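FORM 7B: Structural annotation worksheet

SECTION A. Query
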Amino acid sequence: MRACLTYVLMMLRRFLRDPIYLFFIFAFPLIFLFIFGTIFGNSDNINFNIALINNSETEFSKTFVEYFDSADNTAFTVDTTIDDLDSAKLAMKRGAISSIIELPADFGAVGTTAALPLPSGQLSVYYDEGSPQAGQTVASIVGGIVDGMNAEMTGVKPALTVQSVSTDTSGLSQFDYTFSGLLSYTLMIMGIYTLSQQFPSEKKTGALRRIKATPFRPWQLIVSSALVYLILTVLSAALMIAVGVFAFNFQMRGDWVVLAVFSIISALAMIGFGSIVAGAARNGNQATMASQLIAFPMMFLSGVFFPRYIMPDWLQNLTWWIPLTPVGDGIRYITTEGAGLVDVAPQLGLIGAWGLIAYIVAFKVFRWE
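SECTION B. Predicted structure
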């Protein structure tokens, strides 16, 4: 172990002197944090960029359009450069706007057959088939606005209504839930991608061949490298957490010590998978392809970025066993629900089992050249 610690100190000095390596270790994860933090950190003030096409000349339609320029409108930003439906459809197809609201020529015309003459008409909300969620959300918001106008004009409130109630009482934001996925992703990237490139590059330069000529054993090299990348991963994760707290007001519901212990165990397991690739790959190309083969399924099937409940039942049951799934679930339980180590014991058990398997395989497949 004394030789291992000497190797650890040597590698840390080497990495900390390399600005490019420091960028990928510390700055690269922060890029993702700022992207997702900017998106989900402002989730309470969602604003849709839309086109409003008014084909009507009625007084009511003019009043309706004026609403979108008033202070009461906080959900929509109207693109005033678009004034016809064809241009609006092209802009939506190119992603410049989220949806289109079209008022027909008879929108707001006062009916003469009803006992109480009132403005009437049916507006249209267009959405792109490739991204229907935005258009459907716009239609829902506009429907609420129209319902409010109907109730105000007629003085009759609808007998049946729907109320949306959040079950969360802890005051957490959407970013607080997203952060657990970002932290899990960072642990995976640091453990698999960064480590997997080290040994192949040193095999190419002959550095490992020279180490082989010393009494330094393969297990010492793997353990030393794991310690090096564990230290770097902890520093990177700590920087992410600090930025999340101070820049995006991340709210921690659990215990920081519990999160640290869980993250360290998770990082060691991910480093084990990186050690397999690093030890077995003969060159950088093999390492890159093997890393992607391991990381991509975990990234997309573990629930880190895409919820697992949208998957078929059989796939949900299968993906529970993916190594990154218990990592993401455990971190989310700790940060958002205040779970302790006992509460995340099933996740810790699965992570520990995967880590043990990974290091056994890493020792078996390691080659010096």
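SECTION C. Observations
The beta strands are 48-54, 76-78, 99-103, 109-110, 119-120, 124-126. The mean pLDDT is 83.

SECTION D. Sign-off
Analyst initials: ____
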